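dumping this here so i dont lose it
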């Protein structure tokens, strides 16, 4: 039996390779493609030249960090940097940026970090894709922060994804998805009743709530979106 993995196009091969090394029979389906928005990147450059003292920059994905690292050459010396997870942080650390990221690599994990509790009056820039991570914005604003969104790329649905290997529904033991957008994209592409009846592994309680709201009946939550966390959650599920 195989594990079906839904991830963005830029992550699917490395994720499936890691699963195979862990002796988990898997197939990857890239449902989303990240597309840069040059005009929004230009706006971010201009924004960083005139921001309040002690602003915070929050990176919500490896794509947002990579686009920043390759396009932005100036940022305020007193800015604080935050990342949604270790992989995102590592991209910026390579440029000698001191960056904070949580142990639990979710929006909720980052929001629980001590450095994001007393933020009244501070300005934060969310560097992200279009329509993503709205709970970061709303929670920080509820704590008194001013939040500016820099949507420097968008996620394009892939109508005919190049799967990593052949598969059929009867082969699949469980499905893994690392975002709500991937789940919605799957419901646009595959048999909805099969999706609802198949067990899923997702990466946060918030995404689990979205999944159950779509009618998925068996949802398990991993301790984050890192590949090793997904593998651990999958091994635990398969051993049940």
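and the seq i came up w/
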């Amino acid at each position: 039996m195989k594990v079906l993995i839904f991830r963005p196009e830029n992550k699917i091969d490395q994720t499936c390779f890691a699963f195979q090394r862990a002796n988990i029979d898997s197939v990857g389906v890239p449902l989303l493609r990240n597309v840069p928005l040059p005009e929004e990147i230009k706006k971010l450059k201009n924004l960083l030249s005139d921001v309040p003292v002690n602003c915070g920059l929050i990176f919500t994905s490896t794509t947002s960090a990579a686009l920043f690292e390759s396009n932005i050459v100036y940022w305020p010396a007193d800015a604080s940097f935050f990342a949604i997870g270790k992989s995102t942080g590592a991209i910026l650390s390579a440029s000698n940026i001191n960056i904070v990221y949580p142990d639990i690599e979710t929006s909720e994990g980052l929001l629980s970090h001590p450095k994001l509790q007393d933020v009244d009056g501070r300005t934060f820039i969310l560097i992200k894709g279009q329509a993503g991570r709205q709970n970061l914005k709303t929670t920080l604003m509820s704590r008194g922060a001013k939040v500016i969104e820099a949507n420097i790329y968008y996620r394009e649905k892939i109508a005919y994804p190049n799967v990593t290997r052949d598969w059929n529904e009867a082969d699949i033991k469980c499905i893994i998805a690392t975002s709500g957008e991937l789940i919605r994209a799957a419901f646009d592409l595959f048999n909805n009743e099969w999706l609802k009846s198949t067990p899923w592994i997702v990466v946060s309680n918030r995404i689990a709530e979205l999944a159950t709201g779509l009618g998925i009946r068996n949802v398990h939550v991993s301790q984050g979106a890192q590949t090793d966390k997904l593998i651990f959650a999958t091994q635990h599920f398969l051993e049940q």
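The chain has a mean pLDDT of 92.
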